[in-house]
Amino acid sequence: MDFVLKKELENSNLIFIDLITTKNPKELKKKLNSGEEFIVARGGSDDINRTTLESKRTDILLGPEFNRERDFIHFRNSGLNQVLCRLAKKNEITIGFSFSDLMNSKNKETVLGRMMQNVFLCRKFKVKMVIGSFASKENEIKNRSELISFGNIIGMNGKEVKDASNFKKKEAKIKILK
Predict the structure, then answer these.
(1) CATH number of the domain that 27 lies in?
(2) Average pLDDT along the chain
(3) Based on the structure, what is the number of domains in the chain?
(4) Is residue 19 part of a domain?
(5) Which of 15, 35, 41, 176 has the most neighbouring CB atoms within 10 Å?
(6) Which of 88, 75, 151 is nearest to 114 (CA)?
(7) Nearest residue to 42 (alpha-carbon basis) of 59, 57, 27, 22
(8) What sections of the chain are H helices per DSSP?
(9) For residue 97, what are the contacts with CB-CB under 8 A and spacing of at least 6?
(10) Please, how many CA atoms are within 13 Å of residue 60, restricted to the half-sphere of its CB?
(11) What is the domain range of residue 64?
């Protein structure tokens, strides 16, 4: 299964998701407490990432590595740390890695390095991961083998790639549009 962000791109192999995007933590809390069954929130600032991971209603935090300032001297500013990973594990929130976000970014090498660090942190703290194209245009949709290669590039091992490409959390609640 793969995820798309536009309803027009739906078909039997693609899951349409409504992505929550905001820069205000208070507005994010209101959206997280709405009646949605499957919640995917866009990461960004430290406040947004933390607010998203503190909510038990969130299913996926997508791209915590985006909208970051400069990297630090000794490590990357990847949007995740040990505290946020423990929150994600405790609240059973999956960290999402978007192929189309990587391809559309200006600094691909920086984003790729941040994704690699996030994979390392997720592995260390046993946080679930998901990879997908998360496409908003038809030409951004990638097949399963390309997504598996993407998972290998960002540092996932074979079992992690297999688990990340077969997302099964709350599958009964996901509306698969046909």
Answers:
(1) 3.20.20.140
(2) 83
(3) 1
(4) yes
(5) 41
(6) 75
(7) 22
(8) 25-32, 46-54, 82-90, 99-104, 108-124, 144-153, 158-165
(9) 63, 115, 118, 119, 129, 130, 131, 132, 150, 151, 154, 164
(10) 27
(11) 2-165
pLDDT in tens, 152-163: 999 999 999 988
- Tokens read off for 92: 């059973």
Residue 93 near residue 58 (C-beta atoms within 8 A): yes
pTM: 0.86
Whole-number Å distance between alpha carbons of 12 and 146: 19
The C-alpha atoms of residue 140 and residue 159 are separated, in whole angstroms, by 25
Q: Which two tokens stand for residue 96?
A: 């999402």
Element (H, E) at 4: strand 2-4
Residue 147 CB coordination number (10 Å): 20
The answer to the question of residue 160 being in a domain is yes
Q: Is residue 178 part of a domain?
A: no
Question: Per residue in 64-110, pLDDT tens?
Answer: 988 777 777 777 788 899 999 999 999 999 999 999 989 999 989 98
